[in-house]
Design a protein that fits this description.
Helix content is 38%, strand content 21%. It is α+β, with helices and mostly antiparallel strands. The strands form five sheets. Strands 12, 13, 14, 15 and 16 form a five-stranded antiparallel β-sheet that branches. A four-stranded antiparallel β-sheet has the order 6-5-8-7. Helix 8 runs antiparallel to helix 9.
Length: 498
Amino acid sequence: MKTMTKKTAVVALAGVMAAGMLTGCGEKALDGTKTVATVDGAEIPLGMLSLSVREGQAQAEAMYKSFMGGSDYSIWGTEAEKGKTYGEQAVEQALKDIELMCILKEKAADYDVKITEDDEKAIADAAAAFMSANTEDTLKTLAVTEDQVKTYLELETYKSRMHDPIIADVDKNVSDEEAQQSSFNYVSISTSDLSDDEIKQKKEDAQKILDGLNADPDGDFSEIAKSVDDSYTVLSGSFDTNEDAAEEDSDDEDETTASSGNYPDEVMKVLRTLKDGEVGPDVIETDSSYYVVRLDKVNDEDATATKKESIISTRENELYTETTDKWMDEADIKVEKKVLKTLKVTDNHKFTIQTAAEDTTDETAEVTETPEVTEEADATETPEVTEAADATETPAVTESPAYSTDTSLEVKDGDTVNIDYVGKIDDVAFDGGSTDGNGTDLVIGSGSYIDNFEEQLIGAHPGDKVEVTVTFPDDYQATDLAGKEAVFDVTVNGIYEK
């Protein structure tokens, strides 16, 4: 029997849902007492699902608003896949999350995972605070009861605590030979969809950058590139030093990923001939780009340590997913589709999260702030979701990322990535321009972020640090940012594999 480390804290989401205020309505009243699904006989009430969906909706819209400003944007009605909108997809995903939480609670005794008396008290206090902070109209909109809030927080707590015991037996031994990484910097200049004259000009630009590096091999690569064209961005990357390890990585991936996700063979062939600090002798030409490269370190200890963590994280994610997927397949799950369809996520019924005045001081709480959930009724009917919603729908509380940190993967148009960033104007960080290290998901090509922010991440790899330069629109809602150029120091944490 597996044993988990004892914790006295309630899962962090207890704080997120501890207080809130919703105003307005705009949707037909829900009957939260109806059963929307059963899992091995355990009933899931619609009110509990409503709570989860609205919390996820609020988080998605907060991310979207931080870059777009205002409330005049469309998210939830855009078609996602198989004829479903992102709003419908968000509801269905939230239900699957709760179904899994029910199963995790059911399996908890096998892993010696328990809810303590202190936990029960903290959960009850959080639920009571949530109910007292909301008006009668608010609770009617959510269609949730205090008991449902408590049950939801209890399930979230089980979910959080079950993760580590499930992956406890993962092999964490990774050899240096398997993980050793070499690091390099490079400029990638795309030649896709260009005329012959434009391609010729791009090659001349690449040669100018290479000439500048050869003249000063230790010089500032970024300044050299931008002196040729301010749009050129220098990226940093790493690759498996051991070619056998690189081949094994490719073997572990499906054919499509292996052929499109690695650095081009032409680039790798040159990089493997270089020593520390050396510049590639020629402009490297591929089917779709020109590359100029400089090897940083043949043996990059920091990148190797990150690779080891990535290998272990991948093993953990695979075990967790295999285990929980098996449990889901074996469970007796019945969904009441007519009830499910009554819960809708639309653009004329928006939600936001605001920080409340008081802090949580109870030792059993993991968070110190109590965000408020606020609903915004939109008087106009706007078309509904952009792809940004896909990256943030109903975030799950886990202790390990679901994205891949495999450095052989490359960001492409349409990928969902997890990033951190710090935005600066005149080298000074501005309010609201940072993820504070918490990470956020983004669909490349969705148009979620301003200007050409997303395009500048294409070609980057997990672990890469990318300098993204954008200009805020003149009519941007935050007047202190309107019309100004900002530089974002972006870290690509990982890529969600399809």
